[in-house]
Amino acid sequence: MPPVYATRESYNVIGSRGIMRKDGIEKASGKGLYTRDIVLPGMLYAKEFLSPYAHAKITNLDTSAVEAYPGVRFVLRYDDPWFAENWRLFPPYMGWGQQYEDLVGQTANFAGEPMGFVVVADSENICDEALRLAKIEWDVLPFYIDGEEALKPGATILEPEVDAETNLRAVLNGGFGASEIVGDVEAGFAEADNVIEFDYSEEECSPAGAEPLSCTAVWRGDYLEIWAHNQVPMRTHMQLAQYFAPHTKIHLHSMYHGAQFGFANWIAGYKNFPMIATLCARYTGKPVKHIQGADSYFFYRSYEQGKHYFKIGFNDDGEILACKNVSYVAVTEFGPKMMKGTSIKNYHGTTYAPYFNRPPNVCYRHGMRACGMMNMIFGKVAAELGMDPTELAKKNDGGHGETMDWVDENIKKAQGFPVFDSLNAVLTIGKQKFDWDNRWHAPGAKILPNGRYHGAAFIWSVAWSPDPNEYLSYYQCAINIQRGDGRVRFLGRHGDGGWNHETMVCMVIADELGCKYDDVEMRPFDDTGFDTAAGEGSAGLVRTTPMVVEAAREAKRQLLVNCTSTGSSGAAPLFPGLKPEDLDTIDSTVFEIKNPDNKKTFAQVASYNWNQYPAVVAVGSRKRHNWDVWSMGRQCTFIEIEVDPDTGLIYINDVVDVNDVGKAIDPEGINAQQYGGSYMGLSHNRNEATVYDPATGVKLNADLIDYKWFSFNDINGPFSCNIVEGGLGYAPYGAIGCSESLGATNSTILNLALYNAIGKWVYYNPLTPDKVLKALGKI
Fold first, then answer.
1. Which class is 33-364 in CATH?
2. CA 150 to centroid of chain Cα atoms
3. What sections of 480-590 are H helices per DSSP?
């Protein structure tokens, strides 16, 4: 059985450095249009009221003063008849924790939730002023900020109309985003030489991109045109079509978005944002920009609080036999993620998902919690055995409970992949670059001349490799070689969050079609009726490139047929006497293989009797294959820290990232994902936490002044970003994603490094100085 997409014999553009980004000049010059930049003649602004309570219901709403305020054009209330007649509540999506699906709700489920009413006015300032004028009577309800507390015996029931007995909304033992049950975990514990138990907690963080949400909508008769901030425009398009207009009468543009990552696109705040703009535009007959202000920025998404209890069984040689975990609040992909990439045969995971009063969670840098939890397990086992953690990783490498030797024989060989030891490859590079053998030491054993503790740590994970079969029916793309100049246009809308998707697509087209990279154009904003696969960085790579390759190869086939065919009006072929297989393409030129001097540029082909030859328009779509998809690529990070025993501060001196990406289509983009992802993970691990007032449930640091993010100065030493190309992915050329679980994996690396430094475990993230000082017995 051959690989899904055989690698090419040679590459002209793919894998090159120094390629000009397709979005580079626009973004660097400030001329690129972001969703928030859209301005239309006569445009109004819409902003939502934010709940001051963690849990409360509006019993009376008087908006007369709001409606009378100069410049206010419309007020959309929760009791508008449209909601009763049209709005269909979606069931809570418990796969990622609690979700709130009211469009403009009467009840607040967390402090800062947009609800109650929306003001539409001539300016943002008028919206802000008018929002304060409403007279509201409230039924203030009980609340819980800690999800585990909401599930304890005797806890106040928060939604008795939903369930009068419990606040528990789901118990998950399988399915997307949840834990799973594999093997016999109790038998594994009985067989193990050692069994340990520990718990690990982390506080909610508030991931935010560089651009707050906005959406602009305008009705032109019964035709809706809309500019939406969402990295999955096709899904937004589909949701709007359920309520407002046929799919073909909605034209949705997806502009540049300022740094957007992960699962926020599926929560209510994101999904419903365009709905409100569309409804307000219909009521007013004007273009309406629905805009998120700085005060609501941190309430639309959060990376949720979680507490996890573990029981691990393992042998003296480091083989892990069984893992059991119980998680509260945080619904993770920990079980599936760990089982994909290890030889652990027995696993039982349970997640209790309660109703409680925090914002709906998002999957931020997919698998951050999942990979972090996995490495807490490996770190604890290595510490118990006094074992080099890199050796422990190799001991347990594999997939779905099978050893890597089994995977080599039954998957890699059977599916036509190289028998390549990905984990050993990334470890070899990482250990050498980091000088692991000299830096790693027994816990608490090294104090530096400056009085600080020295620590080193290592973490690893499977590389991000989603199933290319997923969401097949959604996506198509098209490639058109233009008549007249022979340039190439790619048609396929996607949301741009800054991950250089356009450049990657154009590089693939250039090599597959045999044209110059500069001759390929992709305008990701355009609604052409085609959509690429979500534009989600690594997921987009795996799911988009198959159809891009398919379309490019079909475009090349059509081009060579045209060059060797007689035109519809009898025009002579450009290459008389030759067949398509006698020709090839390179650098936007068609040439005869046996006589390369016999050649024509794409421009010459396109302009020669252009009305005689059919236009080259090739469509690529996702096709289902009978693939047994395995995650065979690996990644790792090494880190060196210093810990100040007087202040509790952790200083990060050196970071080495190594990713097996299968095939590096865009090496510079991969490096950007590596250091960008590491910054995110390390920031989450050391600094980031939302702080709530326990008396009111109100978030106290909902801005970038009080919410502490990493800056580039928070890492003292160098970043070493390294790429391995093992060819073990199911995308073309054996490519695997890199971005998602890299930052994710770093979300617990400092816990391991801190233990190596001071010989004490700190299980509660983020690792703020007070926790370090407490562990040292200083406070």
1. alpha beta
2. 29
3. 501-513, 538-563
Calculate mean pLDDT across residues 295-312.
70
Smallest CA-to-CA distance from 724 within 662, 645, 644 is with 662
CB-based contacts of 41, cutoff 8 Å, min separation 6: 287
Contact 478, 633 (CB under 8 A): no
- Mean pLDDT throughout 121-140? 97
SS (H, E, C) 584-606: EEECCEEEECCCCCCEEEHHHHH
pLDDT digits (tens, 9 = 90+) for 365-383: 555 666 778 889 999 999 9
DSSP state string for 308-377 = EEEEEEE-TTS-EEEEEEEEES----HHHHHHHHB---EEEEEEEEE--SSPPB---STTHHHHHHHHHH
Residue with tokens 């924790």: 97
Place of tokens 């970071």: 655
Burial level of 513, CB count in 10 A (0-12/13-18/19+)?
A: buried
Cis peptide bond upstream of 766, omega within 30: yes
3-class DSSP string for 700-754: CCCCCCCCCCCCHHHECCCEEEEEECCCCCCCHHHCCCCCHHHHHHCCCHHHHHH
757: enclosing H helix or E strand: helix 749-758
CA atoms within 13 A on the CB side of 56: 22
Q: What are 689-723's pLDDT values in tens digits? A: 888 999 999 989 887 788 888 887 888 888 899 99
User: What are the C-alpha distances in Å from 375 to residues 460, 474, 655?
Assistant: 7, 35, 17
CA geometry: angle 685, 686, 689, nearest 5 deg: 80
Q: Tell me the residue ranges of DSSP E strands in 80-180.
A: 107-108, 114-121, 135-140, 168-172
Residue ranges of domains in the chain: 24-32+469-621, 33-364, 366-465+629-667+727-775
Fold assignment, 366-465+629-667+727-775: Aldehyde Oxidoreductase; domain 4 (3.30.365)
Architecture of domain 24-32+469-621: 2-Layer Sandwich (3.30)
Q: What is the DSSP letter of 219?
A: E
Per-residue model confidence as pLDDT tens digits over 524-564: 788 888 888 766 567 777 788 888 998 999 999 999 998 99
> Do the Cβ atoms of 490 and 520 come closer than 8 Å?
yes
Q: What pLDDT sits at residue 177?
A: 42
**CA–CA separation, 572 and 574 (whole Å):** 6
Cα distances (angstroms) measured from residue 392 to each of 127, 360, 427: 58, 36, 12
CATH fold match for the domains 33-364 and 366-465+629-667+727-775? no
Do the strands 764-765 and 194-202 form a parallel or antiparallel pair, or are they unpaired?
Answer: parallel
Residues 57 and 86: their CA atoms lie apart, in Å, by 22
- At residue 257, the pLDDT reads 84
Q: Is residue 747 very low, low, confident or very high in pLDDT (cuts 50, 70, 90)?
A: confident
- Return the structure tokens found at 4: 């899904």
Which tens digit of pLDDT belongs to each residue from 386-398? 999 999 999 999 9
Residue 217: burial class (beta carbons within 10 Å; 0-12, 13-18, 19+): buried
Model pLDDT for residues 440-499, shown as the tens digit of each residue: 999 999 999 999 999 999 999 888 776 666 655 568 899 999 888 899 999 998 888 777
Residue 485 burial (CB count, 10 A): 13
Strand residue runs (E) in 40-112: 44-50, 56-62, 72-77, 107-108
> How does DSSP classify residue 192?
-
What residues contact 397, with CB distance under 8 A and at least 6 apart?
341, 342, 343, 403, 404, 423, 634
Region label for 342, one of left (φ > 0), alpha (ψ between -120 and 50) or beta (otherwise):
beta
User: What pTM does this model have?
Assistant: 0.92
